[in-house]
Amino acid sequence: MSVMESYRNYHCSMSDRTPVWWAMVDRPKLSSSTTHSLGQMWDVVIIGAGFSGLWTAHHLIKGNPNLKIAILEKNLVGSGASGRNGGWVSALYPAPDETLLRKSNTVAVKNLHHQLRNSIDEIGTFAAENNIDCGFHKGGTLVIATNVGQERRLREHMSDEEVILDAQQTRARINMNGSRISMFSPHCAAINPAALVVGLAASLEKKGVVIFENTAADLSSDKRVWAKGVELKAGAVVRAMEAYHSGTRDQIPIYSLMIATEPLPLEVFDEIGINNRETFADASFLINYAQRTADNRLAIGGRGAPYVLGSRRKDSRENFQQIHKKLESMARQWFPILDHHTFTHHWGGAVGVTRDWAPYLRWDGRYAELGGYVGDGVTLSYLVAAATADLICGNTTVRTTLPFVGWTNPLWELEPARFLAINSAIALSSVADAEEKWTGKPSLVMKALSPIIGK
Ligand SMILES: Cc1cc2nc3c(=O)[nH]c(=O)nc-3n(C[C@H](O)[C@H](O)[C@H](O)COP(=O)(O)OP(=O)(O)OC[C@H]3O[C@@H](n4cnc5c(N)ncnc54)[C@H](O)[C@@H]3O)c2cc1C
Question: What pairs with residue 176 in β-bridges?
């Protein structure tokens, strides 16, 4: 092992496991819960203070300032995926249109994409109006092909909203080792998600929403909510726990891991570009994604950590060292100049994945459950939360007609078949990436896998 490698290993094991975003954020002291008791009558009780729960409260209180809303959070605001993600505010939707069209219609699918694009700007406007310094910058997004197989796949699957950039145009935006072409979409912003989530929580408190941190909720089978031994009486209940709703067959937690560099000198960006803070991903099946942060770090994420038997959440999966190391060496391969710089933060989190990769919002007149965003929940949670608020208020809007409303997902297989299928799919995604690299054709392995992964 070289001196450089042993230094890196040491650093990897000693570095900060807190998402880099929290290094740039002062957590506001939330105090609304100190003056309220759980046991009073609430109009709406929301379980989970991530983006889904907080945006639901935001949309509700906007039209109904007198509503009494309680949010119960097991840990602290944003301690789930919302405070540990890649900060892409994108218009992506995890399920392809073909899946949606099986149960929905072309107008609803078109409206969905339109609403997602609008939601990006609405989030940016909200942050600006509330002086939330989350580094929101809409520089678009690039998917970069590094082999002929990926290039062919990108060309085959691009939509009207995307354009192909040739090798030279790609290099003018991002100088990634081995890049051939890229696909650019203007519909993405980069943010510090932790700054947005705490800013959103603080803005809600000012409007009278009560947030109980360190308060785990128990939801009974008849949808009654208990916390700290007290039953919370409410007109409506919202389960906004996303990947924390686990151990069932309707959704599984899959881990995405991230690393971040120290703040990099501007000369590094003279070499690698990304000068409009475009978010970027490679076109691999394992999904590696990144952004240049507002303080000039690179924050890079990727999948690959194994799924846990029984769909249990396991915090140790958030720090799966093997994947963190793989991400570091991938980043240094993308941008060799990073060899002179340190990765200071290593962390991860779980995303909720349904059997058909389609997000859901189900509402029975008193109880709502929402989630299944896979890795696209930053914008999506805003939109799904808006539809949730519409349903609770009894309003029929374009949002209540979108495909995720009332969506029923097929169940995942029984264990251990599920465990074997998912972990094989994760392993075979790497095989499919290698296959595309060597054959120069879109992967047949991935084609065979699509019934398993639902895409
Ligand atoms: C590493 C990573 C990278 C990602 N990158 C991106 C990205 O770049 N762009 C994008 O669009 N999406 C991304 N995602 C997905 C996105 O972060 C999530 O879809 C989104 O944050 C989900 O928000 P949420 O509020 O539904 O869930 P969460 O933020 O997970 O919130 C759920 C909350 O519920 C709380 N909770 C759980 N159980 C209880 C209980 N019993 N009682 C009370 N509270 C409870 C949890 O503590 C948690 O705070 C990423 C996710 C991860 C993990």
Answer: none
